[in-house]
Design a protein that fits this description.
Layout: H1 7-18, H2 24-31, H3 35-47, H4 68-77, H5 83-94, H6 100-109, H7 118-121
Length: 126
């Protein structure tokens, strides 16, 4: 992933527009950044009064952690339930939208794995 532009470059572009009277597109061409970047930087400076990077990403708390006791109770009662069925049940009964990948990561963090039984893999008796 590319790195963010330096704060010095942001300041120069914003100053060229605000103090120098240049348009955002002209300032973008002068400093070698995209038009969209210059426009967004100037809009943010005008709207919020902040010249710093708005930030990207961030930590989102898990939707499944608060449902830990409920999920573990379901697995104890129905050990052969699929993640897809568990996802639907979680949405219907608890109002929490969680896809199978999210549930898989939750159970992996809890040390629970869903492995196929060896007996189920046999081709049948001959």
């Amino acid at each position: 992933m590319p790195k963010a532009y330096s704060q010095d470059l942001r300041d120069r572009v914003i100053d060229a527009v605000e103090k120098g009277g240049m348009s955002c597109r002209a300032a973008a061409r002068r400093f070698g950044v995209s038009d969209a970047s210059a426009i967004k930087w100037v809009q943010r400076a005008r709207r919020v009064g902040d010249r710093c990077c708005a930030g990207t990403g961030g930590h989102r708390p898990s939707k499944t952690k608060p449902e830990r006791a409920w999920l573990l109770g379901i697995i104890d009662g129905e050990p052969d339930i699929t993640l897809a069925a568990l996802s639907v049940r979680l949405r219907d009964e608890r109002g929490v939208q969680a896809d199978t990948g999210m549930l898989s990561r939750f159970f992996q963090s809890e040390g629970i794995s869903f492995k196929k039984k060896r007996a189920a893999l046999r081709a049948g008796s001959t």
